[in-house]
Specification:
Order of helices and strands: EEHEHEHEHHHHEHEEHHEHEEEHEHEEH
Distance between the termini: 69 Å
CATH class of the largest domain: Alpha Beta
CATH superfamily of the largest domain: P-loop containing nucleotide triphosphate hydrolases
Strand order of the largest sheet: 7-8-6-9-10-12-11
Number of strands: 15
Number of helices: 14
CATH architecture of the largest domain: 3-Layer(aba) Sandwich
Largest sheet: 7 strands, mixed
Strand content: 15-25%
Radius of gyration: 27 Å
């Protein structure tokens, strides 16, 4: 690590701040989940209401004194603010509270660091952390920043800070170059899929909405899925077959959250390009959440920020099993209600996806010659064969249900010149 800071355990006080200008109403339950996801033990809470943040310490002198007493009484060594603190606010609060202070961005960065598993994910998290740290370096070097005070104490603080900033800048540039290579590799993969005519569908949504569970259900994969925030950081892609035989690539992406730090959005841009370049987005929402509209707005904001807001969307309302009054399937607003856990409503979802990709299955009548057994086998494998009969000429007459595009592809694979 490039700088020193207060050290301590994980006994934490959380401070939720409601602000009127600019308006911010904290989701206390979500913030509790974020803190516990990071592994902290919550030993105290403080709620604050402000017209606007205090430039010096965010919550005002009186509340800082109240928070100081709470830190002493609980012997907490960490205070986590549900808000975005400036470097000077963090520094002033640490001096007054005698405890380590982090804000919402620092907390989410810490969770991301613990969740990253792949080389790419770790690079992205490190880039975001360094971008966050470099504006806060001076706090860790207060013992060296004195420019007056006698022989031996003139200059080294500024020199050390400049050195650390330069080292961080070098590392950030290195990470950006490596992530640019990742972005180019992903671009080549997407271009190859387009040449093969395989569309991409990306799962997007609020964290813990059930995207990874749905991904596993649709692809029969076994990627990590858990009832916790940011269980998935690293993108996963799998090929699936839709009704009618249409092929598509399904991509699972990182979940979004209210006030997602811009540093993370920038760092994960290479990963989020799977959503930007997707032919269709599956917008997964927690249909049983009490504040679903806030979550929906937060996701739409991030999609706007990364340039994915214009992509066609299929809205999926997950966790219908927790809403006994709702029936799985398509509602009057064209939303698909499903349960990724039980599989309810998935047939309706796959049909909607096929239609959204322009590959909805249709009925076709085919007459196969006796030598076209390979085509018959493929049709039985990938299409719904409705009827089969033998003509007077010994040919096989099939009525099948398959997408037009996939049927044309199968005809080409066996070397036949046309559908008829």
């Amino acid at each position: 690590m490039f700088f020193e800071r207060e050290t301590g355990g994980e006994r934490a006080i959380i401070c939720s701040v409601t602000i009127r200008e600019p308006y911010y109403l904290p989701d206390v339950d979500e913030f509790f989940s974020l803190v516990t996801s990071a592994g902290a033990e919550i030993v105290g809470t403080l709620s604050v209401q402000r017209q606007r943040p205090s430039p010096a310490n965010f919550i005002g002198v009186g509340k800082v004194e109240e928070l100081t007493e709470l830190v002493r009484a609980t012997q907490a060594d960490l205070v986590i603010f549900d808000g975005i603190l400036s470097p000077s606010q963090e520094r002033n609060l640490e001096k007054q509270l005698k405890a380590r202070v982090i804000d919402r961005s620092g907390l989410i960065l810490d969770i991301f660091a613990s969740r990253a598993r792949t080389f790419e994910g770790k690079l992205q998290v490190e880039l975001a952390q360094l971008d966050h740290i470099r504006t806060r370096l001076i706090r860790g070097w207060t013992h060296l920043e004195r420019q007056k005070g006698g022989i031996g104490l003139r200059g080294p603080g500024e020199t050390q800070l400049e050195t650390d900033r330069r080292l961080i800048a070098i590392r950030i540039n290195s990470l950006k170059k490596r992530l640019e290579k990742v972005r180019k590799t992903r671009h080549l993969g997407r271009r190859a899929r387009r040449r093969n005519g395989i569309p991409t569908v990306a799962l997007v949504g609020y964290t813990n909405a059930g995207k990874s569970t749905l991904f596993n259900r649709l692809t029969e994969a076994k990627i990590y899925a858990a009832d916790q925030l940011f269980a998935t950081l690293d993108p996963t892609l799998r090929k699936i077959i839709l009704p009618g035989g249409a092929e598509m690539i399904l991509a699972d992406t990182v979940g979004f959250v209210q006030n997602l730090p811009h540093a993370l959005v920038d760092a994960f841009r290479a990963t989020l390009e799977e959503a930007v370049e997707a032919d269709v987005l599956i917008f997964v929402q927690d249909g049983a959440h009490s504040d679903r509209l806030m979550q929906e707005e937060a996701v739409l904001e991030v999609l706007q920020e990364i340039g994915a807001h214009k992509a066609p969307r299929v809205v999926v309302m997950n966790k219908v099993d927790l809403r006994p009054e709702v029936v799985s399937g398509i509602d009057e607003s064209a939303r698909v209600w499903i349960s990724a856990n039980s599989g309810a409503g998935l047939d309706a979802l796959t049909m909607v996806l096929a239609e959204a990709l322009g590959q909805a299955p249709a009925e076709h009548e085919l007459v196969l010659k006796p030598c076209e057994g390979k085509l018959r086998a493929k049709l039985y494998q990938e299409a719904d064969v409705l009827t089969e009969s033998i003509t007077d000429l010994g040919e096989t007459k099939l009525n099948v249900r398959i997408s037009d595009k996939r049927l044309v592809s199968l005809i080409r694979e066996v070397g036949r010149s046309s559908v008829h």
